[in-house]
Amino acid sequence: MGCITKHYLNETTILGVWKIEEDINTLREMVVLDNDDKKKYEVFTSTSRRLEFLSVRALLSELIGKDARIVYNKNNKPFLKDGSRFISISHSHKLTAILCSVDERVGIDLEYMSSNIGAFAFKFLNRKEKITKNADARKYHLYIHWCAKESLYKICDKEGISIRNNITVDPFEVKESGEISGKVHTDKINESFDLFYSRYDNYAIVWTKKKYESK
């Protein structure tokens, strides 16, 4: 299927989602890999990892052009090689998502809602966070919290952030899609963020962005 959405959030920020329905050969023909990309690609032995790798490059090409190249820092955070945009990437099951912006910090996370997330929710929820008692909505509510926390972790790009203790999602009534707020508080960070969530089939998707201010 390829790119299922290419949404301009504003003049400088783009959100794209790719649904992987192609085989490896088809995806491989859709992208141009430089030598560094080829080396990374050859390291992967599983079909699923290769599909993820190629889908990220295919989606990035769809969003900003075939010359765009991704590099990674020591913490495996992605950057564009030319430094032209902030970028955040997420993939789960058959979906890949990219959020990129010229002048806004970004964070995005998506998850396929397959696991019994309630069994390990204690690992990422803190006492300030509230989950609905409605059995039908509870699983989605928990996944929104998880994706929101991952998005905030990514946008802050700092080591030593505890998903459970340093990131808090403010209480909200869960809907199919909506806007929520969250906070990141550590010895070095004290920031609030607006986040947006939605559901696509059996996926939860959450993203956040914030104007970059140089220090």
Q: What is the terminal-to-terminal distance?
A: 42 Å
- Give the biggest sheet: 5 strands, antiparallel
Model regions low in confidence, pLDDT < 50 over at least 5 residues:
none
Helix content: 25-40%
Overall pLDDT: 94
Structural domain tally: 2
- Tally the helices: what do you get? 4
What is the topological layout?
Layout: E1 2-8, E2 13-19, H1 24-30, H2 35-43, H3 47-64, E3 70-72, E4 78-80, E5 86-92, E6 95-101, E7 104-112, H4 135-156, E8 167-169, E9 178-185, E10 190-200, E11 203-211
Antiparallel strand pairs: 1-2, 2-6, 3-4, 5-6, 7-11, 8-9, 9-10, 10-11
Give the structure's gist in a few sentences.
The protein is α+β, with helices and mostly antiparallel strands. The chain has helices at residues 24-30, 35-43, 47-64, 135-156; strands at residues 2-8, 13-19, 70-72, 78-80, 86-92, 95-101, 104-112, 167-169, 178-185, 190-200, 203-211. Strand 10 and strand 11 (203-211) form a beta hairpin.
Key terms for this structure?
single chain, 215 residues, alpha+beta, Ribosomal Protein L22, Chain A, 2 domains, 5-stranded antiparallel β-sheet, 4-stranded antiparallel β-sheet, 26% helix, globular
